[in-house]
Model the fold of this input.
Amino acid sequence: MTPEELVDLILHESFTPTSAMRYLRLLKERVSDKLFQATEEAGQSEYQLASVREKQWLDNLPIDLFNRFNQNSLHNIFTRAEENIKSIQPLIIFLAFELPETEISTLGAYLRQDFGSHFLIELRINPYLIAGAAFSWKGIYKDYSLQQKISDNHQAILKVLEEYRHKK
Amino acid sequence: MPITALLSLVAVVAFVLFLKEYFSRPKPSNQFPPPVLEENHLKSIELLHQAVQNANDIITNAENDALKVVEGSEEHAGRLVDNYEQRINQLAGALEGSFQHEVDLANKQYDKYLQDLIATGKQTQARIEETARQQVNDLFERFEQNLATFLTQTQQQSLTSIELEIKAARQLIDTYKAQQLMLVDENIIAILEKTLMLVLPKKLELKDHMELIKESLEKAKAEKFFV
Done:
């Protein structure tokens, strides 16, 4: 198993840097357990904290996958995979609410159609956006939310309200 | 007759005065020659003798006249007194009658005056009462008018004051309303955003949110934001 393959494996399931790192740690823990014959209790710490989906993924991994690791290369592979993942610049998406995991996956998959399979997103909450999203990419922030639309059409909205008030 | 007596009296007095003057004159001195003096002396004696005789005649006449006058006058006086008494009595009677008449007349006039006075007094009393009643009525009428005027004025002033207060209150309200509307206008967008922020996340369904997010992504792609 090469670090790139490992990254592909991890990024196949995760769309955010945080979840990718979590998946990576889970897998590392499971592989370590397998390679070093750790007891069930000792290897449960990350697994216990994992979500149902993560647990399902981990449990459904093919057994031969763990055979592709050895004790010598384990640390190196995971370290380089981690560095690869950390080197990926994510698209920071500002949302007005917290997306459920399934929708994060849907959004991530949607974006990967255009930007590649290693594209990651980082979600942040900003209730003031009201709806829609704002993006920060390579240090540049742009607001495409409903709040920005209202600000952009400030005068038009005021005009409408004024007309309404005069009609009254 | 009285005039004659009076003249006689005057003559007597003149004679007496002459004699007094003559005998009181200072004796002439022995400067005059004696024959002239003797002559003058004899003439003077004659003159005096004549004068004395005349004076005696006059006196006698005067006395006679006087006596006559006195008698006449006494008689006259008696007649006069009688006349006087008669006349006085007549006069007194007439006066008494006249006085009585006058008194009766005066009494009648006085009675009439009193009656007139009483009548006048009654009339005056009636007039005074009428005048007082009229004045009281006038006073009450004026009082009513003044009171009505005062009440009307007070009411008017109160109404004016109340209207001014209402006007001021309305102006305050209008000013406040305008200020608040201005505040609302200034902050309407913020209010709208806040309202939407509070309402939309709860009202919009997940798929609507996803649609909006995708719409934002498409817009960003169209603007080549992800280059």
Observations:
- The CA atoms of residues 16 and 55 of chain B lie 9 Å apart.
- Chain B has a mean pLDDT of 84.
- The interface with chain A takes residues 181, 185, 188-189, 192-193, 196-197, 200-201, 204, 206, 208-210, 212-217, 219-221, 223, 225-226 of chain B (CB under 8 Å).
- The helical segments of chain B are 2-24, 34-203, 206-222.
